[in-house]
Amino acid sequence: MMQLFIPLNFLGFVYREIRGALANIERMFGLLERSPKVFDCDGAIKHQQLVGHIQFEDVGFSYDDREILHGVDFDIKPGQKVAVVGDSGAGKSTIVKLLFRFYNLNRGKITLDGVDIQTLTLNSLRRLIAIVPQDTVLFNDTLYANILYGRPNASEDEVLQAIKLAHLSDFVAELPAGWDTKVGERGLKLSGGEKQRVAIARAVLKNAPIMVFDEATSSLDSRSEKAILEALSDAAKDHTSLVIAHRLSTITDADKIIVLSKGCIVEQGDHDSLLEAKGLYAKLWNIQNQ
Ligand code: ATP
Fold first, then answer.
1. Which of 108, 189, 217, 223 has CB atoms 3.0–4.6 Å from 59's, for a disulfide?
2. Residue 206, ligand 1, Cβ within 6 A
């Protein structure tokens, strides 16, 4: 069945690829309808190998005339898990958008392994980062095809491995048609937690050195949340990971937590040291854990 399925869908995949391998990311940010203001610079280079060292150096950014990030400085070492937390509107998603270079900075720079992302081709930059968005875009095709979207030339074994790492194996085993099951328009036949795990499997398949996880704001039941957290921690092994977190309970194991307030980093450290500091993080923690 799969042997038949893959050639028949191949053209579809090529089309989707051409239409933009990044559509998922761009839709996540609602940018698809806008004319892009960011282009490859003259002489932009392709960056293929990366250990995954991310640095934001004095990053200042405005949407139109309103400054949103004011001198943001942080460092994520290869293999680290770093979380960004803060009130709604603090600028967390903006940090991710800038990492993908959806906008140019007003000042400062963002580097990957010491290379300014402005000097990279947009395609090569965006291939280095896999994202698990809050709201995953699924198309009305099989589960297999939806996962394969992460890297259309991946083998069946690689898809199987991604399913395993995303903790979807039991779910797939229970489906009457297994991974040939259609997920419905926009994945309507899947729960929120299952959709996020499909997104994790996709991201795993992309096998990019950097993984970004934008935690869904809508609360999942605790069993789904646990499954997602376990899937993420397996998926992020050996990767640099950046988590935009809304529930602080999900990031207590992060190597570093960056606390953002009104576009400024007000604190950074691990969970224990931030609690001890009794600053904004401790305040948010207390509110969420009353
Ligand atoms: P939340 O937790 O609610 O998702 P956030 O911390 O991720 O919030 P951002 O989405 O980064 O916050 O937004 C930071 C600020 O920038 C907000 O005040 C928001 O209204 C504004 N903003 C975000 N996107 C745009 C845009 N495309 N154009 C203009 N302003 C924007």
1. 108
2. no
Q: In 3D, which of 122, 148, 127 has the Cα closest to residue 13?
A: 148
* pLDDT per residue as tens digits for the range 58-93: 999 999 889 999 999 999 999 999 999 999 999 999
Alpha helices in 175-270 (DSSP H): 192-206, 222-235
Per-state percent for the chain, helix, strand, coil, to nearest 5:
40, 20, 35
- What is the Cα–Cα distance from 19 to 21, expressed in whole angstroms? 7
Among protein residues, the one whose CA lies closest to atom 20 of ligand 1: 89
Mean pLDDT of 125-152: 90
Q: Are 86 and 92 contacting, i.e. CB atoms less than 8 angstroms apart?
A: yes
The packing angle between helices 192-206 and 156-165, to 10°, is 130
- In this prediction, residue 33 has a pLDDT band, given cuts at 50, 70 and 90, of very low
- pLDDT digits over 168-203, tens only? 999 999 998 999 999 887 667 888 888 888 999 999
Q: Which amino acid is at 212?
A: V
CA 9 to centroid of chain Cα atoms: 26
Burial class (CB in 10 A: 0-12, 13-18, 19+), 1: exposed
| Whether 199 contacts 28, CB under 8 Å | no
- Which atom in ligand 1 lies closest to the alpha carbon of residue 91? 11
Q: Check if the beta carbon of residue 67 is closer than 8 Å to that of residue 241.
A: no
Model confidence band, residue 116 (pLDDT cutoffs 50, 70, 90): very high
The pTM assigned to this predicted structure is 0.85
Q: Which residues face 221 on adjacent strands?
A: none
Dist. CA 251–CA 83, nearest whole Å: 7
Answer yes or no: is the C-beta of 88 below 6 A from any ligand 1 atom.
yes
